[in-house]
Amino acid sequence: MLKISQGSVEKMMPQDRLYSLRSLDTPMAGKILARWLFGMGLLFLIVLFLPWQQNIRGKGKVTALAPANRPQTVETIIAGRIQQWKVSEGQLVNKGDTIAIVSEVKEKYFDPKFLVRLREIIASKENSLNSKDLKAQALRRQIKALQQGMKTKVDQSKAKLEAEAVRFANAKNQFERNKSLFEAGNIPLTKYQEFEYKYQGAEADFINAKIEIDRVQAEYLDKISKAESDLNNTLAEQFDTEGDLAKLRNELANMEIRSQQYFILAPQGGYVVKATQAGIGETIKEGEAVCTIMPQSDDVAVEMFVKAMDVPLISKGRKVRIEFDGFPALQFSGWPSVSVGSFGGIVEVIDLVNSRPGEFRILVKPDVADEKWPRQIRNGSGTQGWVMLDDVPVWYEIWRQLNGFPPSLYEEPLEKEMEEKVNKVEAKTK
Question: What is the pLDDT, as a whole number, of residue 399?
């Protein structure tokens, strides 16, 4: 109906009474739906331009920031057999408390008086060493006496040699003068032969005096060499005894330390959470775990694993939102201000090497400026975390997610600046 005519029939025939006209009219539900769709589309368009805080998602677990506050495995140093348990699981122990007592399983250490006998052997070795030392001192004195005696004898022989040399020179002089006289016929033959005999005797005595010096030196050098040989043998025996004594003392020290290892002690205070060995009489090896101790400490952190492609964007001091298993939470990762049930954290450590294939580990400590973490969380509890980055429009974030691009930063992360900000916040809080 174009409604061109001046005479309208609507008054004579209302439109709602004609089925054909009613079917051509737009239903009211359609109009309401169109308004809703238009409103939702407009709202979606507005939301696309709202700020969205980019973040890096990671899963992990609760741990301690300091390695000393993480679960400690108590191991036995020596092999043995469990003789007695002194604690039960869940019990609080202090540092140095006895956890278990073990007994020996090696036959070498079965003798209960092994330490006493070892000390007796060491004492006898020390006495033997003292005797050898006294013998060495005596041999040194003997060598010194022989050297002094040789010097005296040689000096005596040299004095005698000088005397014989003078007598020989006089006898030679007399013989040569009398020889000239004999040849001239001034003295008889018997007188000449007498001087010749004296000359030959003086020469023989002179030669014997020379030989006597060499004989005395040879005799005393032989005695000195024998004494020095005895001294060297004594010193060699002394050194061997000292070596044996050092080994015995080392064995004694090891045995004294080993005897203290029969008592397995708690390395630090905490709760016994797991006994890896059970029963009395069970044999354990060196370095085998006996139980686990959870230190009693308020030190808590979150160990998160993030993808390798996201690690360059994380810096020390970055804010983190954490959701703990067992605690209800409603987390809007891009709008942390409207999240409920999540807790704040700060990136404290970023590993320099990957912990898992394609993943790096970061450690997150509590944010002192945010709500305190629940006291009920336990070491090893699962967590989900979001490392918060910069703000971008929602449409950009959707486009990034659809294309699989990593989050982006406007500036290179400066860890020093982030550290200063964190320190300022902590100072204000204190």
Answer: 73
| Residue 338 DSSP symbol | G
What are 306's strand-pairing partners? 360
The span from the CA of 351 to the CA of 306, in Å, is: 11
Hunting for tokens 């809007």 — which residue is that? 332
Please, what are the domains in the chain? 53-68+298-429 (2.40.30.170), 114-260 (1.10.287.620)
Secondary structure, 3-state, 281-322: CCEECCCCEEEEEEECCCCCEEEEEEEHHHHHHCCCCCEEEE
- Residue 15 and residue 3: Cα distance in Å, rounded? 13
Neighbouring-strand partners of residue 343: 322
Largest CA distance in the chain: 211
Tell me what the mean pLDDT of segment 223-239 comes to. Answer: 91
Strand order in the sheet with 263-265: 263-265, 98-103, 80-85, 283-284
Query: Tell me, what DSSP letter sits at residue 356?
Result: B
**C-alpha–C-alpha distance, residues 422 and 382, integer Å:** 26
Give the whole-angstrom CA distance, residue 26 versus residue 261. Answer: 93
User: What pLDDT, in 10s, does the model give residues 185-222?
Assistant: 777 878 777 777 887 887 888 788 888 888 888 888 89
What DSSP character marks residue 331? -
Q: What is the pTM of this model?
A: 0.59
How far, in Å, CA of 281 to CA of 109, rounded?
Answer: 17
